[in-house]
Amino acid sequence: MTTKKTGYILGAVAGAGVMAAAVAGAGMRLPSAHAEQGPPAGLIKASTAPIFAPPPGAPMSFADIFDRVSPAVVSINVTSRADPSALQRIPGLPFLIPRAPQGGQDNNPDGGDEDGDNRTDRGQPRLPPQQSSGSGFFISADGYIVTNNHVVENAESIKVVLKDETELEAEVVGRDEATDLAVIKVKNRRGPFPYVNFENAGKPRVGDWVITVGNPFGLGGTATAGIVSAYGRDIGETFVDYIQIDAPINRGNSGGPTFDVYGRVIGVNTAIFSPSGGSVGIGFAIPSEVAEGVTKQLINGGKIERGYIGATIQNFSTEMAEAQGLGDQKGAIVADISPGGPSSRAGLQVGDVVTAVNGAAVKSSSDLTRQVARVRAGEVLKLDVIRGGARRVVEVRTGVRPSEKELAANDNTGGGRGGAVPGAPPSVRPPVLGMSLGPLDEGARTRLNLPAEVRGALVENVDQASDAGTKGLRRGDVLTLANGRPVAAPADFAAIVDAAKKAGRTSVLVGVYRNGRTAFLPIKVSG
């Protein structure tokens, strides 16, 4: 399932060189199966037992905690090739700034530029090598380290730097783009290494102290302290409800741990909200229970599988609920169905409002996506839906969620559909809610290159001062649904609006088809 995201936060990134080191989140790994015999003597292992009895109120010092946990935290230095698409990933923040090769050497292990013309064998220009840095931490005595996916996803070589400045080579074990977590492992050395554990039971309360350790701006072994500011922050990422903390997080803290006052890992530093790119006291960490689950799967198999129902969804807002007479109903509205996918086979329809999954209430589109992702492929989900004002249950057998890149490649919002209507004469019909509508005849269908299955009323003009104009409707849009009822012609839409007015509704929920997708907008009813 995919959701329509809003760009909200500066996602955490690995920084190039010292000054471009990244601010992003990391994932964590559990000890591997063959490390379950317990740590050798002298190893550091945070447990559920307090390291010391913290005094009431603000502690006098965090030095005891830092001394215990800092040997398990590492700096991660990555050599990679600049990815032009990734350079634009995070508005307002430089991302992996390229650095010129040192000493004139190509430093290219893949042999793709044998003739020295700085181009690959496929004729593509070679990108310059770059140095970037992030943070990570050992989660097993035999060398497994948690960090962010974006820190290592394009790595040609990885070196980890321990607290005593020992440098070790490492390799990627597994990555999960959806949560931005990755696991790497030290090569050619068995350890034992000091490591820390995840804490999933005794969570700090909002207001409790936490500390972070990492590699900000390339300054490894740096500790910062603050409090838990909030839980359950939705910052536009699909699978994570983040912990908000005010312990300073800066570029290069990507993948570093957040500790409670007992030295247990309660989160992985992953992102900041900042107008400047530096810490302003609003940082976000992936909760340990999410990181632990992903870590286990990556170590055991190197791949994450999530449930998938093949539907694009939106939040079902309060205004949308009011438009359909559903009070304060929460949920997610289906905006699109993947042809031949699980939802299509089960009979789920565009415009359905999903309110529960297997009896568990759905609060938002992100909530629905997470509930579906938690199940295994092949399981049957019972979705409580509202369709045309009536409640029903739709049973969907889940599939395997494609990777984020595959979902993006299969996105059917490409150009050539929707947009302006060249040559279309304006309608003489009176406008409805600030929109002049016309029939979707074959001429209009050809001009817009619309699929045969799309039915509705064509928007020929929009009063920009109307609510429809304010919310972005434009000439060439197709109105396909209104208040859960199909729209086949302008008269259908006018009749639905009249019925909403008579019922005392303040808005009409409209399905708008544009660029191969349907989106739902509540449009205010005037008069």
Notes on the protein architecture:
With 527 residues, the protein is an alpha+beta fold. It has three domains: 8-52 and 59-111 and 125-304, Thrombin, subunit H; 307-403, Roll (Pdz3 Domain); 435-524, Pdz3 Domain (Roll), CATH 2.30.42. The chain is 14% helix and 31% strand. It contains ten helices and 29 strands. Strands 1, 17, 18, 19, 20, 21 and 22 form a seven-stranded mixed β-sheet that branches. It has a six-stranded antiparallel β-barrel with strand order 10-11-12-15-14-13. The longest helix has 14 residues, at 288-301. The protein is elongated. The model is unreliable at 2-49, 84-122 and 412-427 (pLDDT under 50).
Overall 3D form: elongated
The CATH architecture of the largest domain comes to: Beta Barrel
Distance between the termini: 39 Å
Unreliable stretches: 2-49, 84-122, 412-427
Instruction: Please give the radius of gyration in angstroms.
Output: 26 Å
Number of domains: 3
Task: Assign the CATH topology of the largest domain.
Answer: Thrombin, subunit H
Fraction of helical residues: 10-25%
CATH class of the largest domain equals Mainly Beta
Output mean pLDDT.
77
Number of helices: 10
- Helix-strand makeup class: alpha+beta
Number of beta strands: 29
